Amino acid sequence: MACSTASPICRARVAHLKETLKDRYGILGFAGAPFTLFAYCVEGGGSDDFREARTLMHRDPALARRALDTIADVVADLLLAQVDAGADAVQLFDSWGGLLAPDEYRDFALPALQRITAKLNARKVPTLLFVRGGHHLLPLLGESGVTGFSLDWRTEWQVARDLYPKHLLQGNIDPVLLLGSADVIRSAHARAARDHEEEPRAAAAASSISATASCPARRRRRWRRWSRPPRNSADAAMIPLALVGMSYREAPSAVRAALAAFDSDASGPSKQLLDAGEITGVVRIESCARVEWLLASERPSWAAELFSAALIGAAENPDHVRPRVRHGAAAVGGLLRVAAGLDSVAQGEHAIGNQVLRAFERAHEAGTVCRNLHVAWRGVGELLNRARRILPQGRTGGVQALVMQRLTAVPRDAPIAVFGLGEIGQAMLRALADAGFTAVESFNRASMRAFEGAVQRADTLIVA
């Protein structure tokens, strides 16, 4: 799934940069190195020592190598996609490679790196490698097949140059210095320039900047980011539902229809997430005003982000697709608002609730309604039954009631054309008949030519 969802987004971003910057600047693509991604996968998040990942390498080395090879193939495809879109060079970030001893790095991490560089070198793509805390690994990193190194700030420039006289070198500025004064930054840059004044300059901070010490809010956000609940944990504070999609406010109907068709395929993202166990059920809710997916998952926020990324990646213009993502109580609230017609053109629209119930019925027939979705289904039904007892049809404040108010002065024999035969269109036709209008014609997309002729002779046009 990673290539099918991430590569189109990366290609679009890199192509946009290439078009915008022209040839004024080079573009450096990047990706995580196999061991670092492997460590995150095994650990399920961040860690100080990634003990579980390192233990797995020794407890089941065959499985670890197979996982690293799989990750390497995905990373290679991702980097080549960036190159195809216009990246001039790429860099691999092995942020946690420095945790490994030289023998461990040689046995596990290095073959996966070589698997990537073999594909990149076949295309003559310049490739940099950064291993944080990896100064003890420097003598064997030359076997990785890269064309240059980004140096950790604890690695002396001259030591690296003596080992690799023909490789491109950059970096070795401590990123913490960038949080200091302007004078400190200038001094660090000048020192780096002196160290390699005889060669092309490529000074850079040797890692990302951690602002946690100076920004408590940033620290809290970072902690939450890496505190996703494990797959089998019970998160009592989170309702296991997510709602992802777009209404007429976020995207035009053509975009919504294209995304719905994309997920209708047997290999669509909802099917992939079901097969991968990331979600336990899904209901797609479609109407003339929206397309949304109700997802059931033990990790609803994570599942929602995965699904949202898949939709963005499938769009012809990813920059214009921003699905609305809600999870937990917000997802339940959004579902009930839609079902009750509180998020439609006119509040209290019965027809919208019928569409939501039919969406659950279709999902039930397809076998994608799990226990949690059954609970949501029952809740929607109970809500609509209560609403209909309190506000019977015709007094809901629905869109047909608003239209009737505008037609009070229209003669009852005046020709009226109604386009749309869905729930709202049917409700509109019933309201017109109840009001005594006798010259009403109804059309849909299948009768578009007849509709075009009716537009010429009708006094009133209603698009439902």
* Tally of discrete structural domains: 3
Q: Please count the beta strands (DSSP E, at least 2 residues each).
A: 12
What class would the helix/strand composition place it in? alpha/beta
Tell me the radius of gyration: 29 Å
Distance between the termini: 38 Å
The proportion of residues in beta strands is 5-15%
What percent of residues adopt helix (DSSP H or I)?
A: 40-55%
Widest sheet: strand order? 1-2-3-4-5
Give a description of the structure.
By secondary structure, this protein is an alpha/beta fold. The protein folds into 3 domains: 171 residues, Alpha-Beta Barrel (TIM Barrel); 150 residues, Glutamyl-tRNA reductase, N-terminal domain (Beta Polymerase, domain 2), CATH 3.30.460.30; 65 residues, 3-Layer(aba) Sandwich (Rossmann fold). It is 50% helix and 13% strand. The chain is built from 18 helices and 12 strands. The strands form 3 sheets. It has a 5-stranded parallel sheet. Helix 2 packs across helix 3, helix 4 runs parallel beside helix 5 and helix 16 packs across helix 17. The relative contact order is 0.07. The N terminus is likely disordered.
